[in-house]
Amino acid sequence: MKYALIPLLPLIAFMINILFGRRYIKDKAHWVSVPAVIGSFILAVSAFMDVKAGNVINIDIYNWIASGSFKVAIGFLIDPLTAVMLIVVTSISSLIFIYSIGYMHGDGGYYRFYAYLSLFVFSMLILVMANNFLLLYFGWEAVGLCSYFLIGFWFHKKSAADAGKKAFIVNRFGDFGFGLGVILIFLTFGSLEYTHVFGHASVIAGKTINFFGYDVGTITLICLLLFCGAVGKSAQLPLHVWLPDAMEGPTPVSALIHAATMVTAGVFMVARCNPLFDLSPVAMNTVAVVGGVTAIFAATIALVQNDIKRVIAYSTISQLGYMFLALGVGAYSAGIFHLYTHAYFKALLFLASGSVIHALHHAGHHDEQNMQKMGGLKKHMPTTYIVFILATLSITGIPLFSGFFSKDEILYRAFLGGGLGKFLWFLAALAALMTAFYSWRLIYLTFHGKFRGSDEHEHHIHESPKVITIPLWLLAFGAVFAGYVGIPPIFYEHGDRIGEFLAPVLGHPLGHGTHAEEIFVIAVSILVALAGWFIAYTMYLKKTELPQKLEARFQPLHKLLFNKYYIDELYSKTLVQPMLRASDKIFLGFFDGRIIEGVVNGVPSFIASFSRGLRRIQTGVFSSYALVMAIGALCIIAAMVFWK
Amino acid sequence: MVPLSWYIMLSAVVFSIGVLGFLMRRNLIMVFLSIELMLNSINISLAAFSHYLQSITGQIMVFLVITVAAAEAAIGLAILMAFYKNNPTIKADEINLLKG
């Protein structure tokens, strides 16, 4: 089965690089990893063609665990959903791998970087190709592990090491729920195979389970637990805090995490489990509400951030919110469609911002990620500027660019989703307005106006080398045209090709609106996109004094947003600090200090004092030994004489 | 004719003197002498029984004991000499290197 090579090639690349990289391969590590991932991409395309021809591949390769009725195989399922994910993951990863040749050039851990990157891609491919929940869980955890390695790649920087830990620990919260969900699935269905579980889903609909004294629908509980994992991995409220900090990693890693290999896992998993979620309206509404609220919540934070990568990071959280919103209203294919278009323009945004950072860094600029210290880069970096514009047009949903098609689909589906749907649609439309605003704000601050650093630095800014700009162009192509596989039927009948392609797995979304409704939604989304653009244009290009005035006017609000609603501080106060204090007092002070150390030191000191007493017997004077011996002999004789 | 019990009593008395000497004397030479005393008390009883039972075995045992005693005295005194070079004392209670 040749498709097993899709995840295997990156794994082999990882093995080679991690074993021989330090000594032998060093700065040629990309010669191992890049061909491997491109090979995966080619195989993924061939798998896609296979699926398009109507084949669904579901094959067990190896019996992983067999214990009584508990059987788990390492097996792969390639259906339309997986095929789309494979294309997204491998194509984006290939471009990022190539880009990294230029970006990471000269870094001391070059081989390490490519090793982890390959492992990351391997994990994600396992995650999307698994045909049972345990293998999915394996990929899920491996992705988390790799994110830890890569976010903390520059581990000598404390902030990077902390960010890596944060990503790992925050994900643990979600994964705990996810793990429980998988266990509950096994307890309920007696199997972890997708086909078995999804086939029997309707059988257990309506069954309840006692949970802390409440009767909860089993399906609802399973879905909510699984969704816990998705919330952690896909950085939704309230577990979104790790994603902005993940910007400490090298920029290609950010691009990989945001576009291809990590945060999309949650969306994929919920879409994969759609037969379960369909049975639980409660879980669906939870997904939709979390998604909608996250979309607007993250967008508001992005409005005022100054770090170029942080803006894009919050934008990712917001876009992921859209995806969950789509999943929550039952438009699974719209969610996956947005995942697919988003992957291209978000990877492009990150890699292009990486190009900016790279250029500024090499010009000797110290505050290389602060947009307030940039400006006027348009004439120095024309390629980066153009691709940035293309990505921004796409993400803000300007018609004819890919983001428009997918975002519009989501908004439309939300609009049709009853009262709650209308409300979430309103939030999402508002978030779209903000998206347009902060995306254009980013462009204007970075590329327009005058350079706000020193002249000497400006003199040294150059366009990035070809190895960086070529992947940018390729991604730009994707960012513009990726959406044409999903044209709304209102414009072009049978235009929604991706929706039809995914329909065997994800089904058709329920409900049909009128043409008037659809046109209304489209009009609103175009309008907000242009409005956001216009506001940003006015504030950051025409009346550049306006932002400061507004900031002074709405000081508390600005501070609240700038400090990200103080959520990090809140978690620190309510969770981290008490935990640290408890660890210090109870676990370190009492449990470790008293109990563990008490046992460890107590046993030897008892033995020591016992033997100190025993030592007295050994006087060293032979006459006392002889006396004891004589007494002993006498006793024996006496016993022999008087016993009987 | 001296009865057997007298020999046995003599042997017991000499043996007891030897034991007491071994336990109570502090001079190592005297300790050695006490050991010889004990061994010889055994010889007395062996010889007495040999005569009483008209068996030669006891007398052979006596020779054996004498040989062993000679060897023991030679080795013991040699050790004592060697020890004395490092630690000029022959007082038994001052020799306590093995004290715990």
Structure description:
The complex is a heterodimer of chains A (644) and B (100). By secondary structure, chain A is mainly α. In chain A, 72% of the residues lie in helices and 4% in strands. Chain A has 26 helices and 4 strands. Chain A is globular. The mean pLDDT of chain A is 86. Helix content of chain B is 77%, strand content 0%. Chain B has 3 helices and no strands. Chain B is elongated and about 50 Å long. The longest helix of chain B has 30 residues. Chain B is mostly helical and 100 residues long. The chains are: A mainly alpha (644), B mainly alpha (100). At the A-B interface, α26 of A face α1 of B.
What key phrases describe this protein's structure?
heterodimer, A: 644 residues, mainly alpha, two-stranded antiparallel ribbon, 4% strand, B: 100 residues, Helix Hairpins, 3 helices, 77% helix, elongated
Tell me the layout of helices and strands.
The complex is a heterodimer of chains A (644) and B (100).
Chain A: H1 5-25, H2 30-52, E1 57-67, E2 70-78, H3 80-103, H4 110-129, H5 133-151, H6 158-189, H7 194-199, E3 208-211, E4 214-217, H8 218-233, H9 242-245, H10 251-261, H11 264-272, H12 274-277, H13 281-302, H14 308-328, H15 332-362, H16 382-395, H17 402-415, H18 418-447, H19 455-459, H20 466-481, H21 497-506, H22 515-542, H23 546-553, H24 555-562, H25 567-615, H26 622-642
Antiparallel strand pairs in A: 1-2, 3-4
Chain B: H1 4-24, H2 28-53, H3 57-86
Helix pairs in contact in B: 1-2, 2-3
